[in-house]
């Protein structure tokens, strides 16, 4: 708290932690607080956040529906890359942070604030994601991270502070919370408390967006997804906006028990953590996108994309969405999607999603070349020279070994 702060924009959910942060900022910094609450499809009523902020005397309150922006400008570009962190995680929390941070900085400029604040703890990845984004967009901004500054280092102290300042506390917050949840239109993330032992299987109550695969319908669900230049634009023939399309896939995937992930991951800050994720629509979308790429992308382009994907995913996970290297990779990825258009048919059944059909006006699949029947376009004798040329270096290596 070395710097004098006059006005700060707080990323505000209206929950216990950020409500305590709001009051703490007013006391510790003696500054005016502006609240910003983003609707990214977390499925919660956001107006109570406005009422709480008003209760603290906040004059400038921003509550914004960013669902379409989130899916169109962040989720879809990421899915063009088929991004998976450590091979399995669809980056649902990671991809939301740069959008929130970007809007915070824009609001700070709009209201003349000299600082921004977030509620991320000093142990997690989100502090890094928020702050790298802040500094990339506004290098001179002052960042306040209360969890790294205050002495409210336990749940008991936090609740005592809330009671002292008459901050409403939900009943489930007075006891030991079973786990913490972060949600948006792409996924839910649950971690901590009851989930900290990686040997213990998560209880069914942890899951909120998916039925268990065992309880899913006994009959498969078929769905068709249409793509245009790498982005999904329609489900079962119905054109939908990006957010509406992802919501539809969430419903379909969740009803069939698709998208559950129990993961021990490597955090950017250095420790391992256990998270339980639900990404029903994203899991369906990933399978569909790879399906349409399988017939529209050239082998070299596809393999190059697959080689670069882990690096791209790591950049997003580590909070480097606004870095030049991520933007460079995005340009390459977007170039690869120019002909990725067509329709994919998928079979959803008890936790699994399988591509069972794909078609495209830009297909590279040539039946006349791959048929087992007689054809007039492929001379099988050409394969002999192809094989001999590729075997040449292997022959030379073997001969050297025999001579030694």
CATH homologous superfamily classification of the largest domain: Argininosuccinate synthetase, chain A, domain 2
Report the CATH C-level class of the largest domain.
Alpha Beta
Tertiary shape: elongated
Average pLDDT, all residues: 94
CATH topology of the largest domain: Argininosuccinate synthetase, chain A, domain 2
Number of separate structural domains: 3
Order of helices and strands: EHEHEHHEHEHHEEEEEHEEHHHEEHH
Helices, by number, come to: 13
Given helix and strand content, the structural type is: alpha/beta
Q: Biggest sheet: strands, sense, closure?
A: 5 strands, parallel
Query: Total number of β-strand segments?
Result: 14
Helix amount, in percent? Answer: 40-55%
What is the topology, as strand order, of the major beta sheet?
A: 3-2-1-4-5
- Strand percentage: 15-25%
Question: Low-confidence spans: pLDDT under 50, at least 5 residues?
Answer: none
Distance between the termini: 71 Å
Rg for CA atoms? 25 Å
Give the CATH architecture of the largest domain: Alpha-Beta Complex
Structural summary, described in words:
By secondary structure, this protein is α/β, with parallel strands linked by helices. The protein has three domains: 7-66 and 94-177, Rossmann fold; 181-359, Argininosuccinate synthetase, chain A, domain 2, CATH 3.90.1260; 368-396, no CATH class. 41% of the residues lie in helices and 19% in strands. It contains 13 helices and 14 strands. It has helices at 16-28, 47-55, 67-80, 97-111, 126-137, 155-164, 171-174, 242-255, 280-296, 299-317, 324-336, 367-370, 382-403; strands at residues 7-11, 32-39, 61-65, 115-117, 142-144, 180-183, 188-191, 221-228, 231-235, 238-239, 260-266, 272-278, 342-349, 352-359. The strands form three sheets. A five-stranded parallel β-sheet has the order 3-2-1-4-5, with helices on both faces. A five-stranded antiparallel β-sheet has the order 10-9-8-13-14. Strands 6-7-12-11 form a four-stranded antiparallel β-sheet, with no helix packed on it. Helix 1 packs across helix 6 and helix 8 packs across helix 9 (280-296).
